[in-house]
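Closing statement on the glutamine sub-project.
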Amino acid sequence: MTTSTALHDLTVAQLASLLRTRQVSALETAQHFLTRAHAHASLGAFLDFNEEATLCQARAADLALAAAGATPSLLGVPLAHKDIFVTRDFVSTAGSRMLAGYRSPFDASVVTRLAEQGAVTLGKLNCDEFAMGSANENSAFGPVKNPWDATRTPGGSSGGSAAAVAARLVPAATGTDTGGSIRQPASFCGVTGIKPTYGRASRYGMVAFASSLDQAGPMARTAQDCALLLSGMCGPDPDRDSTSLDVPAEDFTRLLNESVEGLRIGVPAEFFGEGLSDDVRAAVDAALKEYEKLGAKLVPISLPRTELSIPVYYVIAPAEASSNLSRFDGVKFGHRADQYTDLTDMYKKTRSEGFGDEVKRRIMIGTYVLSHGYYDAYYLQAQKIRRMIADDFQQAFKRCDVIAGPVAPTVAWKLGGHGNDPLADYLADIFTLPGSLAGLPGMSLPVGFGAHHMPVGLQLIGNYLQEAKLLNVTHRFQQATDWHMAKPEGF
Ligand code: GLN
């Protein structure tokens, strides 16, 4: 286990313990993962490295490990961050040409907190432009390939994070989830990921997409690793994010080993309708059976407004995006057009050149639904239904402890498979959007393989602040099965 060839197969928990007992140094660990990340550059998972900064952090971790006394939980463990988080030592692009080469003067809160836990930053991970997308094909810097099949998408928008973890280029990574961007790529790449309750993790320094939905979370191979990272990431940040929840940081590993005997798992009928492909249904059904074997009870429930979550989300998210992205005007930061006649022309050319097609589409939709005469018909209406969707969950949670279902209707599709049809991408978000609109915690865990031997994830949704419960329910499954151990060929 201590030879460098196997370092990348270790979980965060195993690696942290080897580091703590000094069987391996943080420096050799960082070097090992950097070499691997470069060797597999063709996956397209990484957007930026800063070897000097990484090795400097690793040396600092080694000094701290050598000193006696208590060590923070992630001391010397390499992590990589989705390029939505701004970082001082690495370029921060949010997957956009608009921010190509941009260096932030500060680190995002999540990045700072993980660094305080001793994590070593390996680099920045590719993602859809401003986190808008479901296939990582909207990145200005090229798509990411799925390690299970390089002709398929890793999912999005945290596609780089999911692919890097699945390919063992890094033991764990950060992601962000606005409408499914942690859960869906985790499912497509066969890794474990959790989006906590809205407000758990600070949004400070996360390039904003839809502020009322955006939330950071970890992606790793196991629930235990996600729990370790999440414990480091969360906590109030009142001075810098006014929507951060006033609940203290928690030890999310504390319930991991509780039994799931008697656990009531709600199974929403609407998640198992016509659109669900047979292969995904079979893997999800098998996972639910496994939970029954572990002593859980399945309870049929209804989330009647599931279908409405697509139009509701695709009104609210673009509305917020159109406002958030107005800051990219060529004046304050980012790209500025070379040639222009006056200020208006400079704005126009800068934004035409800097933003990709999907981002422009969302800005147009968002501006439209917020405009005079349409605001009531679209935006306000969407807000009302959003509230009803959240209420539906509260009705459901009277009868169950957690909700389970598929993450996405199919396994990962072929890169380019949805052609120029953004609607096909939007529709595939149907199972992740309801939980996002309600601000609930949700996670994805690998539960088998579907068509083309591509991974399938099970989605678990918990009530507000029930992350420790979700991680416990996932951990018990991972103690009983080994889907999370499966490894793509060639990695
Ligand atoms: N696929 C959704 C979108 O394109 C969700 C993205 C996300 O969660 N960041 O908006």
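Residues 10-261 form a domain with the Amidase signature (AS) enzymes fold (CATH 3.90.1300.10). With this model delivered, the sub-project is considered complete and its resources will be redirected to Aim 3.
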